[in-house]
Every structure is written in C-alpha cells, then in structure tokens.
C-alpha cells in the first residue's frame, strides 16, 4: 500500500495557517492582521500550537506566536518549520 500525499504550495499552506488563526481569534484574519489586535489569550495560543502540531506535525511554539507581530509572520514561521 502506498501513501498518498497532497503537495500543498507554501502559499496554500499559509492560507491554511491563517484560517487556523482566524478560528482561534473568532475574527476575520489576513496576513497583515496584528496579533495584538486579535484578542488572542494564552489559551488561544496554546490551542493554535497544539493544532499545528496535531494536524501537520510541526513544532510551533507559544514563543513563536507571541513574538510574531502579525498573523502572516506566524504563517511564515510555520511554513519555514515545515521545510
């Protein structure tokens, strides 16, 4: 049996991550959305980190999220860690 993989481009993957951030923020999110304006609390950050780890096996950290200025920066970090 062979495994089927779907090749997702970096841009598509960024959009997926932005969608995950939007779910946590319960708001419309663009790459330019400032995290400080999204009212994400510490639990939201932990849930985002867990979701990225669970869905994509990527070790995003709360530190990564907290120190990113925008949702797009978080998406870029995840894409970079994806390899």
Describe the structure concisely for a colleague:
This protein has about 80 residues and is mostly helical.
Q: Under the CATH scheme, which class?
A: Mainly Alpha
Name of the CATH superfamily: ACP-like
List how many beta strands DSSP finds: 0
Mean pLDDT: 91
Q: Helix count?
A: 4
Pfam families: PP-binding
Organism: Williamsia sterculiae
Protein name: Acyl carrier protein
InterPro entries: ACP-like_sf, PP-bd_ACP
Could you characterize the architecture of this molecule?
Residues 4-82 form the Carrier domain. It comes from Williamsia sterculiae. Pfam families: PP-binding. The chain is mainly α and 83 residues long. The mean pLDDT is 91. The chain has a single domain (10-82), classed as ACP-like (Non-ribosomal Peptide Synthetase Peptidyl Carrier Protein, Chain A), CATH 1.10.1200.10. It has four helices and no strands. The protein starts with 9 loop residues before the first helix and ends with a helix. α1 runs antiparallel to α2 (42-56) and α1 (10-25) crosses α4. 58% of the residues lie in helices and 0% in strands.
């Amino acid at each position: 049996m062979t495994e089927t993989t779907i090749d997702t481009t970096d841009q598509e993957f960024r959009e997926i991550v932005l969608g995950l951030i939007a779910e946590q923020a319960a708001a419309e999110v663009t790459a330019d959305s400032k995290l400080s304006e999204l009212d994400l609390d510490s639990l939201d950050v932990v849930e985002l980190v867990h979701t990225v780890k669970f869905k994509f096996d990527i070790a995003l950290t709360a530190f990564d999220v907290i120190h990113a200025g925008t949702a797009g920066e978080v998406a870029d970090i995840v894409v970079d860690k994806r390899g």
